[in-house]
Amino acid sequence: MFDNLSDKLDKAMHVLRGHGQITEINVAETTKEIRRALLDADVNFKIAKEFTNTVRDKAIGQNVLTTLQPGQLMTKIVKDELTELMGGDAEGIDLSGNPSVILMSGLQGSGKTTFSGKLANFLKTKKSKNPLLVACDVYRPAAIDQLHVVGDQIGVPVYSDKENSDPVSLAQAGVAHAKANGHNVVIIDTAGRLAVDEAMMTEIANIRNAVTPQEVLFVVDAMTGQDAVNTAKAFNEVLDFDGVILTKLDGDTRGGAAISIKSVVNKPIKFIGTGEKMDAIDIFYPSRMADRILGMGDVVSLVERAQEQFDEEQARKIQKKIAKNTFGFDDFLSQIQQIKKMGSMKDLVGMIPGAGKALKGMDIDDDAFKHIEAIIYSMTPEERSTPSKLDARRKKRIAKGSGTSIQEVNQLLKQFHQMSKMMKMMQGGGGKKMMQMMQNMR
User: Fold this and answer.
1) Which class is 3-85 in CATH?
2) Which residues are annotated as a binding site for GTP?
3) DSSP state of 183
4) Residue 85: pLDDT over 60
């Protein structure tokens, strides 16, 4: 995510490294590089210019504390201004209605239908809501079927009526169905077009007037850069929507839409899509995104994801096993399963400070654990519970059964023993100690 921009901003800050103080000359050179980096990221020229002017004005005349280098101070200024540019604080979603009605809008191909499902899944699993999806795209072939497939995946019902070709009455019927069946959130998936047109705008405005939603959300593909910003502006002029959803952010190496869309339409980015899975949805935190853009990682989000998958009962059992030296490969496997539930490996690595830069250019596959799981599944129950029994003959059999080499089996055993030692060392402080270590990394 935003790899190109992160690299170029890092090079811009490099200008100040080694300097003992901030001067007009070295600040001018740095801000020139920052502006160039933003323009390369497809940020609007006016926004890039205003941003760098603000950074320059704040940097010149700053007294550098003895604990800070000029480069560190400039990084802090840029981080604060990026945070402000992207909205400042995270914006919640209005769920005050009964039911709460959320109207989704956007162009065809922006990922609107998929994100409707992701949002329904998020509200169901994280906010304990009982959502209903309503299919109001009567034009695109198989759009209704697609929403039903998405609904089945996440266990959320879908209201549709293929006999009704009027999106406005469909939306009203969907809200009525939700009231009658105890659904407290209604997410209305509307039709998209290949380009902004009058018929589309009139239709979605009519749906909004008919169902008076608590939230009108505009879904846009982050990878389209300034096109995304321009489309958002056109929609906002007609719809006056409440917030933006940026999809496909995991594939966006530039970041132009994320950085400039709030400034152009004066509406917050509320959620981002970070992958294809139904749980690949995050609340948009401007401060955390600024950290990631500047290569500082996002430890808070990483810890939050870990806590979501944390099973206290299982953790207690593992603690007892560690104390008794009976921690085995089945337990190791359960830890891997929890890590996999946290999201894509590439996304997780991007949250670790400095890791993105250290692993730049490496292809981080979501199947990174595949060969480890294959090796463990090739062990007998006795071998998994008592790893010390793995002699040369057993290792050879396991390597053959898992399609790996003896070297890979030995490497896994080494990693397992290192992890066991680390967990034993940490046992006194438990999860709190781990949390402190991660926070200190910032």
Assistant:
1) mainly alpha
2) 106-113, 189-193, 247-250
3) -
4) yes
**Residue at 405: amino acid letter:** S
Nearest to 409 by CA among 390, 386, 389, 385: 390
Residue spans per domain, the chain: 3-85, 100-294, 301-440
For residues 191 and 134, the answer to whether their CB atoms sit within 8 Å is: no
CA dihedral (356, 358, 364, 370) positive or negative: negative
CATH for 100-294 (1.20.1540.10, 3.40.50.300, 2.160.10.10, 3.10.20.30): 3.40.50.300
**pLDDT beyond 80 at 224:** no
Calpha distance 192→197 (Å, rounded):
10
Token pair of 124, please? 């169901």
186/143 Cα distance (integer angstroms):
18
3-state helix, strand, coil in the chain (%, to 5): 60, 10, 35
pLDDT band at 55 (very low <50, low <70, confident <90, very high): confident
Q: Are 85 and 93 in contact (CB under 8 A)?
A: no
Which of the pair, 343 or 277, is modelled with greater confidence? 277
For 126-154, the pLDDT digits (tens) are 888 999 999 988 887 788 889 999 999 99
The two structure tokens encoding residue 191: 């039709």
User: Which residue is listed with tokens 């909004």?
Assistant: 208
Among 112-121, 194-203, 213-222, 371-380, the range scoring the smallest mean pLDDT is: 194-203
Q: Which CATH architecture has domain 301-440?
A: Orthogonal Bundle (1.10)
Contact 309, 338 (CB under 8 A): yes
Cα distances (angstroms) measured from residue 264 to each of 34, 40, 88, 215, 245 = 20, 18, 15, 20, 15
Q: Which residues pair with 247 in a beta bridge?
A: 221
